[in-house]
Design brief:
By secondary structure, this protein is mainly alpha-helical. The protein has one domain. Helices cover 97% and strands 0% of the residues. It contains two helices and no strands. The protein has helices spanning 2-51, 54-134. It starts with a helix and ends with a helix. Residues 107-135 are annotated as: Disordered. Residues 112-126 have a biased composition (Polar residues).
């Protein structure tokens, strides 16, 4: 069970790392979209001035807003997944800490039991030796 908890923690850490990597990728995508949106906006303004077509500019702005909304949604999803994984990691860390504490107590009990057994063996050997001496 201890190994399974450690393995599960490792898997969660990998998922967390992947989620963070995905967040980084999404942030890069957002920056790319923003850069593209800025360029598109500049072209749209020039085109609107040239052609006096306000509707053209409105369609570009609407498309950009939709693209930005979608990119933000993806980042939000990735951040939510990272939060869930972090919470699960903390839960597993607590379980692992509890298991380690139990394991330490068991080791202490075994050491105490071993010492008691050694003392009994010594006492029995001493008694046997004494009985042999008396006999």
């Amino acid at each position: 069970e201890f190994h399974a908890v450690v393995q599960h923690k490792h898997e969660l850490l990998q998922e967390l790392s992947q989620a963070r990597h995905q967040i980084g990728q999404k942030e890069e995508e957002i920056q790319s979209v923003r850069t593209r949106l800025e360029k598109d906006t500049d072209r749209a303004v020039d085109q609107a001035k040239k052609e006096e077509k306000e509707s053209y500019l409105q369609s570009i702005v609407s498309k950009q807003a939709h693209m930005l909304q979608e990119a933000n949604r993806k980042v939000d999803d990735a951040q939510e997944k990272a939060k869930r994984l972090q919470a699960e990691k903390q839960h597993l860390q607590t379980q692992l800490d509890q298991q380690m504490h139990i394991h330490e107590r068991q080791e202490e009990a075994l050491k105490t039991q071993e010492q008691t057994s050694q003392q009994r063996i010594s006492t029995l050997e001493s008694n046997v030796h004494r009985v042999e001496q008396e006999a």
